[in-house]
């Protein structure tokens, strides 16, 4: 990741400084912005590889800024930091084209996992992605591995695992799962839970982590 430039947009100075202190040295440059307006200006000036942003900020919020950034550079990955009770805003983030979102309070390892995955994707590095606890995902062959063993998945199960891998370190909302796996066809939350149960029988009970009523992610720390 030391070849990448990151822009972090957050209105609380203490959080900006704490995150830069914690992970800033991992990157070529770690640029700070105090709100969406400041973030947009610094994006245009520095052209960062990755943007991390809070949602609720004065002058211009994180989603408004993200929408403007996507108009300038559709392919720049944006990671949104969101409180659990901001689900409606997360749904808007999907429409804007936000790449990843993490639920506050932010787990440092989840953020590192997310940035590592984005960084590898940007730099087109190893196709074999380590998911933790003996699991790997081969992005070129699109197969899930446990050790050297290929886990046999149905088409929908593979789509589900693929969208979780794409959002490694962050939760995928029920609405996004429906959109990606069932192409927006009507499916109940109960049906999704039954579907997840089948996937867990092929992997591990703890392989997929969930927040009830919100979404799912790969538990890379099991």
Helices and strands in order:
Layout: E1 5-9, H1 13-23, E2 29-33, H2 36-46, E3 50-54, H3 62-72, E4 78-82, H4 87-96, E5 100-103, H5 108-123, E6 128-132, E7 135-138, E8 143-146, E9 149-151, H6 155-166, E10 172-173, H7 174-181, H8 189-202, E11 208-211, E12 215-218
Parallel strand pairs: 1-2, 1-3, 3-4, 4-5
Antiparallel strand pairs: 6-7, 7-8, 8-9, 10-12, 11-12
Helix pairs in contact: 2-3, 3-4
Structure description:
The chain is α/β, with parallel strands linked by helices and 222 residues long. Helices cover 42% and strands 23% of the residues. The protein is built from eight helices and twelve strands. The strands form three sheets. A five-stranded parallel β-sheet has the order 2-1-3-4-5, with helices on both faces. The longest helix is centred in the middle third of the chain and has 16 residues, at 108-123. The mean pLDDT is 86.
Give a brief rundown of this model:
This protein is of the alpha/beta class and 222 residues long. The chain is 42% helix and 23% strand.
